[in-house]
Amino acid sequence: MLAPRPLFSHRPYWAARFGVAPFLPMSRAEMDTLGWDSCDIILVTGDAYVDHPSFGMAIIGRLLEAQGFRVGIIAQPDWTAAEPFRALGRPNLFFGVTAGNMDSMVNRYTSDRRLRHNDAYTPNDEGDKRPDRAVIVYSQRCREAYSDAAIVIGGIEASLRRIAHYDYWSDKVRRSILLDAKADLLLYGNAERAIVEIAHRAAAGESPKTVRDIRGTAFLHSGNLPEGWLELDSTELDRPGPVAPLPDPYAMTPLHANASRQTDKEAVAVLHLHRRPPRHDRARTVIRLPAYEQVKDDPILYAHASRLLHLETNPGNARALVQRHGDRDVWLNPPPIPLTTPELDAVFDLPYARVPHPSYGGARIPAYEMIRFSVNIMRGCFGGCTFCSITEHEGRIIQSRSERSILREVEEIRDRTPGFTGVISDLGGPTANMYRIACKSREIEQSCRKLSCVHPDICPNLDTDHSALIGLYRKARELPGIKKILIASGVRYDLAIRDPAYVRELVTHHVGGYLKIAPEHTEAGPLSKMMKPGLGAYDHFKALFEKFSKEAGKEQYLIPYFIAAHPGTTDEDMLNLALWLKRNGFRADQVQAFLPSPMALATTMYHTGRNPLKGIHRDRGETVTAPKGLKQRRLHKAFLRYHDPENWPLLRETLRRMGHADLIGNGKRHLIPLWQPSGTGLGGGEGARTGRKHGPQRALTQHTGLPPRADGGRTARGPSPASPPPDRRPQCALTQGSPCGAGKRRGR
After folding, report:
1. For position 620, what pLDDT does the model report?
2. Nearest to 371 by CA among 437, 301, 296, 429
3. For domain 14-221, which architecture applies?
4. How large is the angle between the packed helices 571-583 and 630-640, nearest 10 degrees?
C-alpha cells in the first residue's frame, strides 16, 4: 500500500489571501463582508450550521478553507424550490452535498416507521427541516439551480447507499444513490483526503466528473474495463450457487483455472474468506458484484454481495468493486487511507468558532448542547457490530489524536465555550476505550480480512494496553479550571477487563454516578448475529466496576442497553432477557428496537434471512429468522418493558402461547401479575402508544404517498409538534433503583 500524500502538503489555492472567516458565510451579505465575489465550493447540509469539529460540514468546510478555498454553507434550505440553492451564487468548483451528521431517514422516522416530530440538529429541536432522502433531493435542487455545476455527495447517508442496498422504509432494494442523485462523484467514509484532492484538481481545471483514481470515491462508469485491469467475478471468490446470467453482460476476464473454491468447512467458519486466489496486482483488480437487477430480486445474491463488500473494507488490502446498474457500472475505489495522528490533530486544530452560526440567535440546538463540552479523541471502531454504521463509515482502523491536541481542545472549551462550568461531559469517541489500540503488527493489520478484532474473541494480535488512555485521563483532569472529566461514550467492556487498571481509573475518577455500556442481549443466538461478546464479559466488568466503586467510596450504577427485535432473536430469547432484567432489578424506561440501516450486515440478515458472516450458498449455510411486522416487534419491545402495565395483556397472551403460563402470577418468581390495574392495558402496549411522540400514524414518507401540503408545496411536511406540558419529565434509560441520569445513546 503506497503512502498517501500528506493532507496539508498541497500548495494553498490563491484565495488563501482572504484569510480565515469568523464563520463560513451563509449569505451574500457575509460574502460581501469577507470581500468575496463568489464561492469556490458550496456545502449543502441537512443540519444547522454549527462551527464545531463534531459537525461534518464544519470539518470539511474549515479543511477546505485551510487549503485556500472560499467555502460557503447552505444549511437546511427549503427543498421545495431551486431558489434557496442559488443563495450564494454558482460555485466556481462544485457543490458538496450531505444529509448531515445523521441519515435523513433515521433522523425522520422511528424503527417502527413512525414520523418523528423533532430534530436535534435543528434550532429549537424543530422537525421537518430536511426532506426524506436529503442527499437525493438536495442534489436535484442544485442541478435545477445550476445545471452545469459539478455535484459531489458524501456523508453517512451517501456512504451507506453507495451500491444497491436494502431500504427499510420502502421495503425494497434500491439502486446506488449516485443514479438517483445524478451526482458526479460520491465520497464515502472519512473524506478529508478525497475532498482535498478533488478540490485542488478541480482548481487546476479537472472536472470532478472525470476524477476516477481517488480512494474512497464512487462514480458511474460506462464502457470497457480500463486497460491493464483484471476483473474477478465475485461468485468465483465466494460461491453462492447458480447465478442467472444477465442479458448482454459485460465481457469478464476469467479467473485462472486453478482459482480456489471454499470448502464446506470454510463455508461455515465465521469471519474467514476463501483461500487466496492466484497472485495478481490488487491495486489494479476490480471485483464484479452481482448487478442491481439481480440482487434486487434475489436475496441470496444480495447476501453474497453484502458479504463481499464488507470483506473488501480493509484499506491495506481492499480491491475496487463494480456493480452493474442498467447500462452503467457503479465503480467503488478502495477505502481511504486513515489519517495519521499529525493529520488528525491538524484537522481538529482548525479555527472553529465552536458555536452555532450567529443567524440562529439564541435558539437551542440539542445536538450542539449535547457535545459542546465534549472532546472526540479518536475515530473508527474495530468492534464490527453488525447493526452499527460506525465501522462502515469511519473504518476499522483506529485513528487517534495526540495527547497534546486533546488537552489543547479541553483548554479551548474551558476558555471559549459559553456556559462552561468546569465539567467535560465526555472525553471519548465512537468507543471510549479504543484510543491508540491497534494491531501489534503493521503487516498483519494490512493483510487481515476479519470483520472484527474482538469477535468471537479478542484477537491475540490486538494490543489491549490502556496505559496511553489512563495517562490522558490523568493529565486532562489536572488541567487548571477542570473540575471533572466524564466518560459518556460507550465503553467496550470486553476490552476493558483485559486491563483492570483502566477500569479502576475509569470508575474512581470518571463516572458521574452512572456508566452506560451495551451488552445488547443476554442470549447466545442474537449475540452471535450482532458479533457481541457473551454475558460473561459483562459479569466480569460488573464485578470490577462494583469492586472499584466500593474502594472509591462511591455509589455508582451500570446502565446496560439492550436491543429488541434484532435478527436472530426469538420470542424465547426475549423472554429470557426479560427474566434477566427482572432478576437483576432493571426497568427499561426507553426501548431501542433494531432499525435496519442501509448496508449493515444485520440489515442483510433482516432482508435475506441469511447470515453473511459465513459463506453464502443456496443449498446450505445458516439461515436467520428476523422479527418482522409491527406485532412481533411490539412483543419484543414489550418483553424489555415487562414492568409496564400497558404491556401485560400482550405478555399474558404470549406467555400462555409459549407454554410459560407459570410466569404469570403475583409472586417474586413471576414475570407479570395476574391482575390488571384499572385504566391500563387499553392502548395496545409498545408500538401503539398515544400522544405527541406516539400517536398512531401511517408509515408514509414523502416519496411514498404523503398528502399534498396546504400551501401547495410539492412535498408534504409533517404536522408541527405540540408543546409538551411544562411538568413533563424526561425519559430515563435503564434504572436500578436509582433516579434517571443517563443521556442518549451514541453511535447508532
Report:
1. 84
2. 429
3. 3-Layer(aba) Sandwich (3.40)
4. 20
Same topology, domains 14-221 and 366-510? Answer is no
**Of 285, 284, 303, 305, the residue nearest 163 (C-alpha):** 305
Cα–Cα nearest to 369, from 318, 417, 319:
417
Q: pLDDT, tens digit, for every residue of 162-200?
A: 999 999 999 999 999 999 999 999 999 999 999 999 999
Does the pLDDT value for residue 261 go beyond 80?
Answer: no
Instruction: Give 612's DSSP letter.
Output: T
pLDDT score, position 101: 95
**pLDDT tens-digit readout, 696-735:** 333 333 333 333 334 444 333 333 333 333 332 222 233 3
Domain residues of the chain, as ranges? 14-221, 366-510
Cell of 325: 446498474
Phi-psi region of 221 (alpha: psi -120 to 50; beta: other; left: phi over 0): beta
Residue 629 region by backbone torsions, left for phi larger than 0, else alpha for psi between -120 and 50, else beta: left
125: left (phi over 0), alpha (psi -120 to 50) or beta: left
pTM higher than 0.90: no
Sign of torsion over alpha carbons 85, 90, 92, 93: positive
Average pLDDT score over residue span 254-280: 42
Domain 366-510 -> CATH class: alpha beta
- Name the band, by pLDDT with cuts 50, 70 and 90, for residue 241: low
317: its cell numbers: 488490502
Closest C-alpha to 299, from 123, 110, 171: 171
Q: Note the pLDDT of residue 238.
A: 82
